[in-house]
Amino acid sequence: MQAINLADKLSTFDEVYVPKVVAELNGQLVKIAKFHGTFPWHSHADEDEMFLVLEGRFDLEFRDRTVTVSKGEFCVVPRGVEHRPVAAEVASVMLFEPATVRNTGDVVNERTIEAEGLERL
Amino acid sequence: MQAINLADKLSTFDEVYVPKVVAELNGQLVKIAKFHGTFPWHSHADEDEMFLVLEGRFDLEFRDRTVTVSKGEFCVVPRGVEHRPVAAEVASVMLFEPATVRNTGDVVNERTIEAEGLERL
């Protein structure tokens, strides 16, 4: 058991939309990622997904609305709901989701990272 | 779907060691709590528990060591490991754990709040 410093972990990479695992518990993964630009539309059939903003802000776009999530705020995307993050500037985000989640959900494209391919920091 | 502001939620209560639910996803609860003073020793037989510090700091005491967790840091306590939080000053903490968790784990005392008794903010 140790204290994990999120800023320290974030300082170790610059890639955007490449989530890194910082903890695993109860079959769930805690990941951190940097967001910048527009991520593809997708949904996760069986997994809810939580986005907690650590630095900056981003827009979580749904088909019928946009939710701006800023530092110190979070948003939960229920399973099955199409969404895409759009970040005008770099945002640092913590994600909570089951260990089974593929980042692009029902879509496979150049952004896809399968769960088994995730880097552990 | 909406953005939940953690500071706003924290400003709605002052009680210590009374976790409040701010989100539920994938059978897990996201809770916030204020810590101050010494919580009883306990463990959770079947649940890992994550503590993320939002404001301040606290000591997470284990039988063989103490881990100080400060703002922007988190610590995961694996299932079965005895622990107790000790906060010299008020600390604001986010907890991530299964919906089944009793806050005092294997112990029932005046601090105990059963899962079904949790307040939703």
Can you give a write-up of this model?
Two copies of one chain form a homodimer. Chain A has 121 residues and is mainly β. Chain A has one helix at 6-10, and strands spanning 4-5, 20-25, 28-38, 49-55, 57-62, 66-70, 73-77, 83-98, 119-120. In chain A, strands 2, 3, 4, 5, 6, 7, 8 and 9 form an eight-stranded mixed β-sheet that branches. Chain A is globular, with a radius of gyration of 13 Å. At the A-B interface, strand 1, strand 4, strand 6, strand 7 and strand 8 of A face strand 1, strand 4, strand 6, strand 7 and strand 8 of B.
Gist of the model:
2 copies of one chain form a homodimer. Chain A has 121 residues and is mostly beta strands.
Task: Give average pLDDT of chain A, whole number.
Answer: 95
Major sheet description of chain A: 8 strands, mixed
Structural class by sheet pairing and helices of chain A: mainly beta
**Given the structure, what is the number of helices of chain A?**
1
| Beta strand count of chain A | 9
Q: What Rg of chain A do the Cα atoms give? A: 13 Å
Regions with little confidence, pLDDT below 50 for 5+ residues of chain A: none
Roughly how many Å apart are the termini of chain A?
15 Å
In quaternary terms, these chains amount to homodimer
